[in-house]
Design goal:
The chain has 512 residues and is of the alpha+beta class. 36% of the residues lie in helices and 16% in strands. The protein is built from 15 helices and 19 strands. A hairpin with a 4-residue loop joins β14 and β15 (369-370). The radius of gyration is 31 Å and the shape is globular. The relative contact order is 0.07.
Length: 512
Amino acid sequence: MRVFIAFEGLCEPFDVHPGQTVYDVKQMIKVYFHIQLSDDKQGRRILELTFAGGVLRDQWVLTDVGITVCSTIKCTVKEETKPALYVFNAVTKERIGIFGGVYLLNERVSRLKTLISLKSGYPVSVYTLRTWQGTEMYNCNCLSDYKLDLGATLRMDVWDGWKEFLKACVTGHKKNVQRYLVSKQEVLRYQERVALYMAAHFGHLELAQWLLNKGVRADEAVGVHPYREWCCETDHPDVGKCAIHAAAEAGRLLVLKAFIAHNVLCLQCRNPVGQTPLRICTSLTHKDCVLYLVMKTWSVVSFPNISLPMSIYIKVKKWLFVAQRHIWRVKKRLVEFKPRVGDTVVVNGFTEPKMTSRGMHGFDHEKGRKETDDSKINTSTKYGTNKVNNNTLTNGNEQKMKLPPIHQTPTNHTRSGNKDASIDDTFENSWTAHVPLPPLVNPGNGRPQKLTDPHAVIILNSSLKSFSKYSGRTPRENAIHCLGLASEFKEKTWLRQLDVARMLAKKSVCSL
């Protein structure tokens, strides 16, 4: 099969076998055009083949993606700079690349945490960094103190019991965020500020609006966890960032509008460096946000008898807010939620670390510890200790109470030669007996006519499980993945893209 390769103004023919992969074609191009490629710690220089608007991957076969005789493939030399460091996010299981070259290794850990916060959207006070060997990294130290090499991978751990909550903040699911909020007031207020900050970064308008209605302020600093309140003045400078700053850094125009409409004081809210949201958007060239902020900053607020520039109105508003807040506290005798004697305090290097990315399962939020034995259910009360063993419940007074036995659902469909069928098989067979599946397309191929046969259902389920086990994706996820890859060939029609997706899905099954 002859194809044409377009490279730097030339178009040369190549004879390719139908079963050759894209990688084999790249090797032929490299030898023919005498191209020097490289792959080291600093970066790499690679060949990239594109066809019909989509980038071809090395493991693909040319005929699988619709390349026919006399097709033209575009070849370019691509130079990539590798990240200086990789950060593994323990919440989302993703690797974040941090660029900066060898000079980044001479920076402090606090500077690295600022870069990670800008990329991940997490406030700096919710996570800590560790080397892959488990050594915790502190803000005041340099990266060179930990003997890191270019391309090294670090681990980003969050507060214990916060994984599910932070996942919900990343996705912007309001119900899940509500579900994982804790009941302790001081920690709850801190969680709400973190959720508003992350909603501003990711642009989750519904979640941000709900938090604003709850009373969370967009111009209030995220701060530190109550366990670290004692050292907030010497902590990372970025703990003074607010949700309005996160929205300005990410260029979220709709979130900016919601924040300013709810509280106009956000216009003059300054970050730890002294920059307003307008200054942040200008430095990051967010054009739409800059136009909106300029219009709001230099607007006029009109009242029945007077009109004030926005800058004067903000100053009056600040003065009124401080006075109203003081009067409200005096009347209601409110007490701020601050750490008290007896509260948990986390000291670097001395106390047990509370940031190990432990999930909510098996973690006690009120006591701040993990249950020592998850296999037994021990509930300590002033009356005694309750223990659950088999079908007997025993309390502190040694009074035994029998629990009702577990009844198994009888079924007529059991495996031949196996009298002790499992409960899962019983439920599976009873389900297939009541819900018949449609027959196969070709009834004469020697296969079961319907999938109501228990053996056919078991074989099908085992095949699907084995595919998910070895590929890492369910069949549905694999189909979506293949459709996404085929949609990159924008110059092809939709039906051609569907054919490519079918072929890729078939090859992914055969490769297993």
